[in-house]
Amino acid sequence: MSRASRQAMLADIRRACAPRRGKSGIAEVEARLAAHAPGPVPARARIEREGQIALFTAEAERVQANVVRVKRLSDVPGAVAQYLARHNIEPRLKCAPDSLLRSVPWAQHSALEVAEGKGERDDPVGVTGAFAAVAETGTLVLASGPASPTTLALVPPVHVAVVPTSRLLGTYEEAWAALRARETGPGKDFVMPRAVNWITGPSRTADIEQTLLLGAHGPQRLFIVLVDEENAQP
Amino acid sequence: MESSAGRFETNARAALATPTLQAALAKLADGFPARRLEAAERLPEFEELRDAACAIKEHVLDHLDVYLETFERRVAANGGEVHWCRDAEEARRTILDICRRVDARTVTKSKTMIGEEIAINDYLERHGIRPVETDLGEYIIQLRREPPSHIIAPAIHLSLAQVAETFRGSHADLPPERKLNEPDALLAEARAKLRPDFLAADVGITGANMLIAETGGNVLVTNEGNADLTHTLPRVHIVIASIEKIVPTLEDATVILRVLARSATGQDITVYTSFCSGPRRPGDLDGPDEYHVILLDNGRARLLEGEFRDMLRCIRCGACLNHCPVYRAVGGHAYGWVYSGPMGAVLIPALIGMHEARHLPNASTLCGRCESVCPMRIPLPRMLRAWREQLHRERRGSFLARLGFSAWASVASRPGLYHAIMAPLIRALGNLAGAGRSFRRLPFLGGWTAARDFPAPEGETFMTLWAEAERKRKPYADLRVSCEGTPTDVKGARP
């Protein structure tokens, strides 16, 4: 059934497309895919580093994320513990099995209970790194993988993201370029991770009388900890 | 989905007489357009991005066959599968086959207009599978067994009290005395109800805001996060998408994403923008084992040729609905099928046939706001006129109306005759109106004057005034007046 439909659909489409293009159809498509040229890129994010950090913070806060910047990875547990205490959230963290998060000295803070794994029903807090953070709109870019389960940023009611400032980029295009660089190698074509998630603020809905409410199905709170220390590998 | 588009006039009258709907529509008209404008003004490159987004889709439509085949190859390389479906029936059967093969009981769904188009929920239910809508608005209308009334805000027509009543009726296991008078309480209840379904679902069905040829994946945008739970938690992810959703690369998708949310809700970007590319990879701790894409034609290939081709650029943002005086008066249900507003009035006749949808192209004032806000610069008024011309050619509509149009056409295309008739008529009407300057009733114009007064012409006609001015200012006597600009020729204009 599907095979016949495939032929019929393609034949219909081809009949309509053929007169509108030259014989170079396939070559043109291949060239375009290989070039993956960016479109117009907003000027607001093409600024120097400190400006990008300020822009990221302002844009993320504009959409109700909470952002804090610390110097060292050893400052992270304190910042997280303080945030959770302030909002009366159980200090039980489910962390991504990620080298950056493993280099955070969580044990320094005895109040924090820390486990690793994917995000599950009863986890109060999911902790992730981020592949990148985009200043343009205060957006986190998460790329799924063995060290980065998608559910941690979605299932628990609180999402904490620990992001080295070195991962901060101006625009989405820069994040794509970085991902292509990471996922392409000698003899290895670019393959996307199973899921790439852009996250801009905590979950929300306005489906009831257009009233904005936070925490629809995803997290109600998003806490982003920017870390200046550079020792972690992506 | 069953259509009631043929009863547009009755539907519209009922809508105008529904106070809760009118209150909701007034709120919509205050909110979305202002937020869109603010978002557009915050981004100096917005107009340039609209042009770029259009160009991407135009390029894709010229090479659609090549892109679809490329997409299919990349999906397969990621370990997924593409299913080509010519019509709704084929798509429904393909989805059911997948669900049966994995012995699915519960299917979570993230809002998809194509899902509405093929009425997948009813079909699955009839075959013993429980579909659960997870977008809050979509969940509410599923409980009420209603179709969506807006592409991006499906429950926009309901008041808080109506939602509370629906929850009381449907969630019979909860204490009846619970308080549901705040939106927060309703959201908390829906979230608690849906959580077990998210975790128990065997299959997750989503739409696709875009398909990306380069990566063999799909893009999903939501604010709630429900799409992500839907594609991440179940064993099987089924994407249902129509053929025109394809874009070449991640960079192309990015261009379109920059105009999508801004045009829709006035957000710079939705909270969640997700790029799914196949089943889980070795070592992944979560994600589905299977990834299927249902590629649906359902009449679209036919649109590639001819005057409705531009409609295939549509990215379903809803801006044309939010800015349409007719949509804002009658809401989405009046249109009688899945889509509504100007994009619906153009698309519905193409998808379900002109006979059933014959009223919709006339459900427009041709004011042109839809085209001016459309991120993809779709010439909606031109296409509405094209449908009207087709209706006229096919001799649909009343004999009297067609006679009127023919008479009008023969007069309007002869400037001398037109002027000879209009000048005395305008003068007579102006004199007749007297002090009130408008008519409460006029012969042959009962349709107009039943709901509003007919404004009386004031003074002389433009042609008469021009001729007088010409006489006074001899040097310009040779100047010819050109009246060829169309009222919808407002590309790039802001409302």
Provide the spatial order of strands within the biggest beta sheet of chain A: 1-12-7-4-2-3
Largest sheet of chain B: 6 strands, parallel
Query: Most extensive chain contact?
Result: A-B, 79 and 105 residues
- Beta-strand percentage range of chain A: 15-25%
How many helices of chain B? The count is 22
Distance between the termini of chain A: 46 Å
Along the chain, the helix and strand elements of chain A come as HHHEHEHEEEEEEHEEEE
Task: Kindly state the number of beta strands of chain B.
Answer: 12
CATH class term of the domain at 43-301 in chain B: Alpha Beta
**Average pLDDT across residues of chain B?**
91
CATH architecture assignment of the domain at 43-301 in chain B: 3-Layer(aba) Sandwich
Task: Report the biggest beta sheet of chain A as strand number plus sense, adding barrel if it closes.
Answer: 6 strands, parallel
Estimated helix fraction of chain A:
25-40%
User: Shape of chain B, please?
Assistant: globular
Sequence of strands across the biggest β-sheet of chain B: 1-10-7-4-2-3
Number of H/I helices of chain A: 6
Could you name the CATH homologous superfamily of the largest domain in chain A? NagB/RpiA/CoA transferase-like
Tell me the structural class of chain B.
Answer: alpha/beta
Could you describe the 3D structure shown?
The longest helix of chain A is centred in the first third of the chain and has 16 residues, at 2-17. Chain A has 2 domains: 2-35, no CATH class; 44-227, Rossmann fold (3-Layer(aba) Sandwich). Chain A has helices at residues 2-17, 25-35, 49-62, 76-86, 99-102, 172-183; strands at 66-70, 92-95, 113-116, 125-128, 132-134, 139-143, 158-164, 168-169, 195-199, 204-205, 213-214, 221-227. The radius of gyration of chain A is 21 Å and the shape is elongated. Chain A contains 6 helices and 12 strands. Chain A is of the alpha/beta class and 234 residues long. Chain B has 22 helices and 12 strands. In chain B, β5 (210-212) and β6 (217-222) form a beta hairpin. Among the domains of chain B are: 43-301, NagB/RpiA/CoA transferase-like (Rossmann fold), CATH 3.40.50.10420; 404-459, no CATH class. Residues 482-495 of chain B have low confidence and may be disordered. In chain B, α3 packs across α12. Chain B has helices at residues 8-16, 19-41, 46-62, 64-77, 88-101, 113-117, 120-126, 136-144, 160-170, 183-200, 226-232, 250-264, 300-303, 319-322, 327-330, 341-352, 369-373, 380-393, 399-412, 415-433, 446-449, 462-472; strands spanning 81-85, 106-109, 130-133, 203-206, 210-212, 217-222, 236-242, 246-247, 272-276, 290-296, 438-439, 454-455. In chain B, strands 1-10-7-4-2-3 form a 6-stranded parallel beta sheet, with helices on both faces. A 4-stranded mixed beta sheet of chain B has the order 8-5-6-9. In chain B, strands 11-12 form a two-stranded antiparallel sheet. The longest helix of chain B has 23 residues, at 19-41. With 495 residues, chain B is of the alpha/beta class. In chain B, 48% of the residues lie in helices and 10% in strands. Chains A and B meet through α1, α2, α6, β9 and β10 of A and α2, α3, α4, β1 and α5 of B.
